[in-house]
Specification:
The complex is a heterodimer of chains A (about 550) and B (about 260). With about 550 residues, chain A is an alpha/beta fold. Chain A has 24 helices and 15 strands. Chain A starts with a strand and ends with a helix. Chain A: This is Helicase conserved C-terminal domain-containing protein.
């Protein structure tokens, strides 16, 4: 066959024109220099990667290089990148995009990422890849901007959606693509409506959890790759078709794991730090716990809140106080409950020592190393900052809700001026702190994925030291259950890297959280909790 | 281009464009930009607009480029330049624009009798084979506008000769027998003939990939009487992704009046 051939008529036209109206003629030296410049951008092979030659200061790890090459040469530029946290999916995406741009196959690019990561993506593309990516927020100029970075929420709204849909994008990237698993959502429909010549979907969550989710994600990228919906479900419900399905998935998905990235990863040293409550703290915890069954049948909501209160009591009295205050307002007209709550309030006032905070202090004072403390509660965060300040230790707060500029500022403060960074849960995503190698899980989330994300902040490419993780667990409380009966049993903290992946493929993190809450809520004795958690860990670790 | 080549290229580029090198080492260049180069490279249209409006004294920037960051003295502050850096890209772009078209005469100095100069049409460029992958092939074609003879590697043959923008003393040009427009047409036909004889396995393979994906797409929407927009959208996307085509792009070219045949040393 002979493909269509296009000759450079534009050059010809201008050349002939200038023969009649002499202008813009270059001299001999200029002519030779133009030729050298023009020649330098030619790529003489279909295969291999040019991009690294253009990016001498970028450290590209072997698995990233291979991923980029596989996506371009074997997957034809349409793929799901599903590396574990910390392996550099952004670098892989940047390499692929750069390669296509160098080769002139891609010009118009749309990158959709969570709103909190827009600035960071832009900066990485500009600084690391010299790709002139521009943030599109309030007054976007979709037509004029070649490489636009935005959030799906902005893009899917009118008037933007219609403009975006009318543009012929050459390349589309969606970060955190696991949020696109439900085909009924507006986000899904929007991404589906775009013309996808080359396309990358990035996700850190393994996608094999639910069959229908796998189906929808892949159908977004490459409709028909897994057949149509009804035949897909029939076929792959059977166990023996699993292998075939996995092979199909691997044709469009790259998933690198730390364990097989072929690198010498720093070790994870995990230490459980048992915390022993003071008598006052014990009294508070016991009082809170008694609420769980006492008002059964009368105030059902209270039982569930008890779980929260118990976890807060393990964190700080400040955290308990906030929830308790709200409860007192809520049960203002129920004398019995109100009195119980008032009693707990009195117990709060008795607590003068926070055993966990004391433990933090002794860990920090022992060395000059930087330390990240993760807590689930803002009240605890504030308390800890104050508490450490009292002892002459500088700490900076970090929250997901901070604006990007504030996040950067806090990160810089931490790097240059403070020994401690105290982060709440939502602060985890999208910040890299590999200059620090010690971390305290001051209280533990019940979703194992979130723990992995926490650890991923420091245990990532660029970390040169072994990573030390301290898990705090107050003895005789829910924390001991979670840590001792669940996380340890399933081997969450063992140095077997990639282990969490296997776990989450069995059971997604949010489901674990749900199961745990149910067990704690509906068990009447320690023994019952123990047995049920044992069962759960057996199921997961299977 | 390696570091040394880039260094040499930059130095030549600025000297060529009236921008003297104020200071230099093997690993850096400190340049006083000319007004034209400041306008081309420094991206400050408002400044130039303002200066020209008030008739002020222009103060073009100086620029320091570090071509070898490892060797350069640490006290030197400047932009690090390497292959792929945006500044180099910009300079290449500028260079490409400045030398895109040429009308040049071989610099000969006749001793006595006047000499004839014969016109050659020279085109440098690349043939790009595009599908979801792409590869470029460089060409440099010279066509005698007197005899119709065509030579390959014209740039290579000419590169050590000297050319100038004005016709040298005691020389005269011979008018083309083949007009430039017809010459361009000959070269175009030559390329097409040549390409028609090539085996385009790459294109056949691309079409196979295209058809395979299209079959999946058809199956996905099979049974739907009225296909949704997304079907047509996806179909179009597959075409854009895989459809093989060949682009012949010209980097630069022009008319060269040569005394000797380019293949004669």
């Amino acid at each position: 066959m002979i493909p269509d051939i296009r000759f450079d008529e534009e050059w010809v036209g201008k050349f002939l024109e200038s023969l009649h109206h002499p202008q813009d003629w270059g001299n001999w030296q200029q002519f030779k220099m133009a030729l050298a410049a023009g020649k330098s951008r030619l790529v003489e092979s279909f295969y291999g990667l040019e991009a690294p030659k253009h990016l001498p200061s970028l450290e590209v790890f072997p698995h990233q290089f291979e991923t980029a090459q596989t996506v371009i040469e074997k997957m034809n530029g349409k793929a799901i990148l599903a590396d574990e946290v910390g392996l550099g999916k952004t670098i892989e995406a940047g390499l692929i995009l750069k390669e296509y741009m160098i080769r002139g196959l891609v010009k118009k690019v749309l990158i959709m990422v969570p709103a909190s990561l827009v600035t960071q993506w832009c900066r990485e593309l500009n600084e690391k890849f010299y790709i002139p990516a521009i943030e599109q927020r309030k007054k976007p100029a979709w037509e004029q901007i070649d490489v636009a970075v935005t959030s799906i929420d902005t893009a899917k709204r009118e008037p933007h959606a219609a403009v975006i849909q009318s543009i012929d994008y050459d390349f589309i990237i969606v970060d955190e693509a696991h949020k696109l698993k439900n085909k009924k959502t507006k986000n899904y429909q929007f991404v589906k409506s775009l013309k996808k010549k080359f396309c990358l979907l990035l996700t850190a969550t393994p996608v094999q959890n639910r069959l229908s989710e796998v189906f929808h994600l892949i159908s977004l990228l490459k409709p028909g790759h897994l057949g149509d919906e009804s035949s897909f479900e029939q076929k792959y419900k059977q166990e023996d078709a699993q292998h075939e399905l996995n092979q199909l998935i691997q044709k469009v998905m790259v998933r690198n794991r730390r364990s097989d990235s072929g690198m010498n990863w720093p070790k994870r040293k995990v230490e459980t730090v048992p915390i022993f409550f003071t008598e006052d703290e014990k009294a508070l915890y016991a009082a809170v716990s008694s609420l769980k069954t006492k008002w059964r049948g009368i105030a059902e909501g209270l039982a569930f809140t008890t779980l929260t209160l118990q976890r807060e009591a393990c964190s700080s009295k400040e955290a308990v106080y906030m929830t308790l205050k709200n409860l007192i307002e809520q049960y203002e007209y129920h004398t019995g409950i109100r009195d119980d709550l008032a009693e707990i309030m009195a117990l709060i006032n008795n607590v003068n020592i926070n055993s966990k905070a004391e433990q933090v202090l002794s860990l920090i004072q022992g060395s000059d190393d930087k330390m990240i403390i993760f807590t689930e509660y803002r009240a605890t965060q504030l308390f800890l900052q104050w508490f450490l300040g009292q002892h002459g230790i500088k700490a900076v707060p970090f929250r997901g809700g901070f604006k990007r500029s504030k996040k950067d500022w806090m990160k810089q403060l931490f790097k240059d001026h403070a020994q401690v960074l105290i982060a709440t849960e939502a602060g985890g995503e999208g910040i890299n702190l590999q200059f620090c190698h010690k971390m305290i899980n001051y209280d533990l989330p019940w979703n194992p994925m979130r723990i992995e994300q926490r650890i991923g902040r420091i245990h990532r490419l660029g970390q040169t030291e072994d990573v030390e993780i301290y898990n705090f667990a107050v003895q005789g409380t829910v924390e001991e259950h979670i840590l001792g009966l669940l996380y340890k049993k399933i081997g969450l903290f063992e140095d077997v890297i990639g282990k969490l992946d296997d776990i989450l493929e069995q059971l997604p993190g949010d489901q674990v959280e749900e199961h745990v809450a149910n067990i704690l809520l509906h068990s009447d004795s320690e023994g019952e909790i123990r047995v049920k958690l044992d069962n759960l860990s057996a199921v997961i670790a299977e | 281009m390696n570091r040394t080549e880039i260094h040499r290229y930059l130095k030549q580029f600025f000297l060529e464009n009236d921008s003297p090198i104020l200071e230099e080492s093997d690993s850096h260049l400190h340049i006083q930009l000319s007004v034209a180069m400041d306008k081309a490279l420094m991206n400050r249209p408002f400044y130039w607009h303002y200066i020209e409006k008030i008739g002020g004294q222009p103060a073009p920037y100086q620029l320091t480029l570090i071509t070898d960051a490892e060797k350069a003295d640490e006290s030197i502050k400047g932009e690090k330049i390497h292959f792929g850096s945006p500044r180099l890209h910009q300079i290449f772009q500028t260079a490409t624009q400045l030398g895109r078209y040429a009308l040049l005469y071989e610099a000969v100095s006749p001793a006595g009798n006047s000499l004839p100069l014969k016109p050659w049409l020279v085109l440098n460029g690349n043939i790009s084979y595009c599908c979801d992958h792409k590869k470029d092939r460089f060409f440099s074609i010279g066509l005698s506008l007197i005899t119709g003879e065509m030579i390959n590697d014209a740039a290579e043959q000419l590169k050590n000769k000297q050319f100038q923008v004005q016709i040298p003393d005691y020389c005269f040009t011979i008018s083309p027998v083949i007009m430039p427009e017809a010459g361009l047409e000959r070269i175009r036909k030559y390329f097409i003939q040549q390409l028609e004889q090539e085996a385009h396995i790459w294109a056949e393979e691309a079409v196979e990939r295209w058809k395979a994906d299209e079959e999946l797409l058809e199956a996905f929407y099979d049974g739907e009487d009225e296909k949704p927009d997304s079907y047509y959208q996806e179909k179009e996307a597959l075409r854009a992704q895989y459809e093989p085509k060949i682009d012949i792009d010209i980097i630069n070219g022009g008319l060269f009046y040569c005394h000797r045949h380019p293949l004669d040393a």
